[in-house]
Amino acid sequence: MTKEEFTKMKQELEAEYLAIFKKTVAMHEVFLCRVAAHPILRKDLNFHVFLEYNQDLSVRGKNKKEKLEDFFKNMVKSADGVIVSGVKDVDDFFEHERTFLLEYHNRVKDASAKSDRMTRSHKSAADDYNRIGSSLYALGTQDSTDICKFFLKVSELFDKTRKIEARVSADEDLKLSDLLKYYLRESQAAKDLLYRRSRALVDYENANKALDKARAKNKDVLQAETSQQLCCQKFERISESAKQELIDFKTRRVAAFRKNLVELAELELKHAKGNLQLLQNCLAVLNGDT
Amino acid sequence: MAAEREPPPLGDVKPTDFEELEDGEDLFTSTVSTLESSPSSPEPASLPAEDISANSNGSKPVEVMLDDDREDLFAEATEEVSLDSPEREPIVSSEPSPAVTPVTPTALIAPRIESKSISAPVIFDRSREEIEEEANGDIFDIEIGVSDPEKVGDGMNAYMAYRVTTKTSLSMFSKSEFSVKRRFSDFLGLHSKLASKYLHVGYIVPPAPEKSIVGMTKVKVGKEDSSSTEFVEKRRAALERYLQRTVKHPTLLQDPDLRQFLESSELPRAVNTQALSGAGILRMVNKAADAVNKMTIKMNESDAWFEEKQQQFENLDQQLRKLHASVEALVCHRKELSANTAAFAKSAAMLGNSEDHTALSRALSQLAEVEEKIDQLHQEQAFADFYMFSELLSDYIRLIAAVKGVFDHRMKCWQKWEDAQITLLKKRETEAKMMVANKPDKIQQAKNEIREWEAKVQQGERDFEQISKTIRKEVGRFEKERVKDFKSVIIKYLESLVQTQQQLIKYWEAFLPEAKAIA
């Protein structure tokens, strides 16, 4: 590999690393801001320790046993979810939210996948620009007619344009794809919340039925009563917080989309203008030469 | 291009061209008569050019070229042309403009060092030819278009007929605007005729577009899908470029076969362009034989220019292939990008529908629309990528193959000459032996044979010189054309990129207020 190719590759890798770094940092920031904005979670001790402890937090990753446990828990949950989703909800609000979330989640999943594919193609097109630039450079240095200057200039243009195109693709990835991915997971979390609530509702209804049965048989009535009380409390608590959370979810969603879409449009504009400037400059020079 | 042939004070290219032609006008008649009187060889023709150069050097100050003058001048030239045989045409049609031989003999774009080593006769020929081609280039008045592909016939015997329209003011054509219907095998037939006439004397004949069995079968079967329409469009554009390149060549333009192709409404079907015909198989056998010969011929290259040029073309070929591969990848990825953007647009629209916050829902639908428009943009850009950049590169890769073929012909010519010389030597030895053995009848026979072979050696040498001369001129022309072509196409391509960016800006600027309006 020649020295130029080597420096070029080094720059490329650096740019890529920077893009990935920016992306990861943004994701972490969003996560922490979210936790901090939540009225209850922000008071969590773990969170405080995370933010304040200025030495190394030795966090242990999940070992095999825990991973297996997680896997089984997921299986059980999804099976249960199917059973529970059959129950019709009394509350209109939650019923509406459930249908909405289901549809929304699916569509966000679709949009997120398509957006990923789009940014990936964009990136491969930008990479092609890079190769074209180096081929043109080789042509320029090897040619002996006056077209060599022409080729070198166009090769330079392609290099610069490629950087811009790569940045466009990275920004699209950052603002659009990541947004959609985040809301994919958020909507999944909201669905999980609804599931928990439905689970509580089912438990409550079961407890009611058990209490009725106990009353009819007239044994263990006290036990049934206390468990019914507990279920009732749990259900009401979860309904209240769920309502609040879902409303928050909506406001947050709207705000996040607005912020990201505005930033996306602004960045696209900035890059397109930069690209245009570059192309026009190059054309002016080339037309001036010929 | 004319710069090298003009003395330094005349810097600008355009005026000098006209100026030369202006000069030529006065002296043309005298030249023509001299040329006509000696139709046999090009050598005498070079002398008048020399005379003219001497004269016109004095009449240089004549300036101010008017368009009408130019047309008249050329009209004169073409009239004379029609009286002569095809081979003479290139010589006669040339403007006897000041050859300016005292300055730089080889008027190529970039002054080459090797040019100084050229022998005297070559200088005159070349300058004359160059003037002719330059004159043709300035008064180049023939426009060819290939359009309206339509399917003729049905089933496996179906074919696509293309309309070839010619607009010209050259008087060698009977009308100024005419069109004919041609099919693909007609184009191939034209190319094979031109190749058989001109390749072995060293002219670079532009190669015709390639056959494609898969593509044509799809069209024949009648599949009206986008890939077959794309194929037809690709072929139409390739045929147009092929014809345009062929008529740009001054020598080929004069060829009667080309004229017949452009003008006559009925053309004999070129059957031997079919791959499986007798001629086709013969071609394949010849190609194989050529390949073997190339490996066995060891030529003593006396002229470094040729060796250098061959090396250059090898390098150029490799570079162009690499570049072509990258551009094809770009076309592919851009098409992918366009498809993915369209898919995303639909998905975003659905998302907008299911979103219950009205402002956000509207913004998402707007985003979907923007992305759809951008997808269109990407598709158009992909077309531009392909038709401008990628096709240019593949054309040139094929052209360079033709150039290499021409160099190979020169080698074959040298081989023939060498063989003739060797045979002559053998014949001389035989004669000597006969002299010693004292067999009078055999001696006479030997003498006859020697005379015959001497003539062949001379012819071989002449042929070799001629082909070398022609190749130098052709390569010079090729280089010029290449530079011009590449520059103009790349600039057009960059302009298409500029357009895309401008459109992008428009779309995103329209979207931004929508995004900001999300409450």
UniProtKB/TrEMBL annotation, chain A:
It comes from the Eukaryota. Residues 71-228 form the Sorting nexin/Vps5-like C-terminal domain. InterPro entries: AH/BAR_dom_sf (IPR027267), PX_dom_sf (IPR036871), Vps5_C (IPR015404). Residues 197-224 form a coiled coil. The keyword Coiled coil applies. Keywords: Coiled coil. This is Sorting nexin-6 isoform X3. It comes from Mesocricetus auratus. The gene is Snx6.
Automatic annotation (TrEMBL), chain B:
This is Sorting nexin-2. Residues 30-50, 92-103 have a biased composition (Low complexity). It is found in: Cell projection, Lamellipodium; Early endosome membrane. Residues 436-470 form a coiled coil. It holds the Pfam family Vps5. Residues 30-63, 82-103 are annotated as: Disordered. Belongs to the sorting nexin family. Its main location: other. Residues 140-269 form the PX domain. It is a peripheral membrane protein. It comes from Mesocricetus auratus. InterPro entries: AH/BAR_dom_sf (IPR027267), PX_dom (IPR001683), PX_dom_sf (IPR036871), SNX2_PX (IPR037918), Sorting_nexin_N (IPR005329), Vps5_C (IPR015404). Involved in several stages of intracellular trafficking. Interacts with membranes containing phosphatidylinositol 3-phosphate (PtdIns(3P)) or phosphatidylinositol 3,5-bisphosphate (PtdIns(3,5)P2). Acts in part as component of the retromer membrane-deforming SNX-BAR subcomplex. The SNX-BAR retromer mediates retrograde transport of cargo proteins from endosomes to the trans-Golgi network (TGN) and is involved in endosome-to-plasma membrane transport for cargo protein recycling.
